[in-house]
Automatic annotation (TrEMBL):
Its EC number is 2.7.2.8. Its main location: cytoplasm. This is Acetylglutamate kinase. It comes from Thiobacillus sedimenti. Substrate binds at G67, G68, R89, N191. GO terms for molecular function: acetylglutamate kinase activity. InterPro entries: AceGlu_kinase-like_sf (IPR036393), AcgluKinase_fam (IPR004662), ArgB (IPR037528), Asp/Glu/Uridylate_kinase (IPR001048), NAGK-C (IPR041727). It is found in: Cytoplasm. The keyword Nucleotide-binding applies.
């Protein structure tokens, strides 16, 4: 049980938000909402309220969501196994159907409905809508043979982003909720890692912040202690010495890519903490790991 705050403490906490509201007014904040941070309903409700609040105080939140565990759940129900190569789900035609159903349908609409329930005006879209995320087939380098490229199916590498649809929605006070799917000029659909999509969208929008909400307190060192601040160079060192592995690799990789493209700061925060988003944006505390250019 937390001790209740007195009226004076509450007033102090509220007034502390003022400089952050002023600083981030009319700025774009891209929020990557990871599938692992979406497991509990009360956390999803708190997340939706936070997004609505940020919009109402004048920021432009853009939600880019994942859904890895939710895709795994549906694949399991149809008796299909998934394989990951370098953090990317090998995506055959049948898997792509499930990915499109879960990301573009179930998860996207769930988030949209929650935000709207709390008074926001969320609009769900995938990167296919308005031909907004352009992609091509991604080939990954084999770990065994450096010169060999592996075909992992319908996994997309982003070749371009047309931000107009997002800008139009922002300007009219809608909250875009983006599922990471893309298409090529032939109309083929691609499954895109949500961290990649969030980092690239933040870069194209020249966002103030990109915030990755996941299921760890942030980036941890070898002793499992939180690293509160990192530069792109330090991130490279932590990947090289194996401290950062698995699903954290694309996350920090695209966080660095975003700050190198002009996004002011990237944050990896714990989506299991209630109102983590609000704490990150509107309080002096900040939470998780901050990545910015050194
Ligand atoms: N150095 C590290 N610090 C924190 N987490 C790490 C680190 N290295 C690897 N990880 C793993 O990365 C995971 C987060 O990535 P991922 O499972 O892809 O999450 P999401 O679904 O939110 O994208 C963590 O749960 C953890 O297991
Ligand atoms: C190519 C690829 O791996 N795509 C991801 C897309 C969803 C995602 O990234 O979800 P999280 O952020 O919850 O992990 C996948 O199929 O799982």
């Amino acid at each position: 049980m937390t001790t209740p705050h007195t009226a004076a403490e509450k007033a102090h906490i509220l007034s502390e938000a003022l400089p952050y509201i002023q600083r981030f007014y009319d700025k774009t904040i891209v929020i990557k909402y990871g599938g692992n941070a979406m497991t509990e309903r009360h956390l999803m409700e708190a997340f939706a309220k936070d997004v609505v609040l940020l919009k109402l105080v004048g920021m432009n939140p853009v939600v880019v969501h994942g859904g890895g565990p939710q895709i795994a759940g549906l694949l399991q129900r149809i008796g299909k196994q998934s394989e990951f190569i370098q953090g990317m789900r090998v995506t055959d035609e049948e898997t792509l159907d499930v990915v499109e159903m879960v990301l573009g349908g179930l998860v996207n609409q769930d988030i949209v409905t929650l935000i709207n329930k709390h008074g926001g005006r969320a609009v769900g879209l995938t990167g296919k809508d308005g031909n907004f995320i352009h992609a091509k087939k991604m080939l990954v380098k084999s770990k065994e043979k450096a010169d060999e490229l592996l075909d992992i199916g319908q996994v997309g590498e982003i070749t371009g982003i047309d931000p107009e649809i997002i800008q139009v929605l922002d300007a009219r006070d809608f909250i875009p909720v983006v599922a990471p799917l893309g298409t090529d000029s032939e109309g083929n659909a691609y499954n895109i890692n949500a961290d990649v999509a969030a980092g690239k969208i933040a870069g194209v929008l020249q966002a103030e912040k990109v915030i990755f909400m996941t299921n760890t307190p942030g980036v941890l060192d070898k002793q499992m202690q939180l690293l509160t601040g990192l530069t792109p160079r330090e991130v490279d060192e932590l990947i090289a010495d194996g401290t950062i592995s698995g699903g954290m690799i694309p996350k920090v990789g695209y966080a660095v890519d975003a700050v190198n493209s002009g996004v002011k700061t990237a944050h990896i925060i714990d989506g299991r903490v209630e109102h983590a988003l609000l704490l990150e944006v509107l309080t002096p505390e900040g939470v998780g790991t901050l990545i910015k250019r050194g």
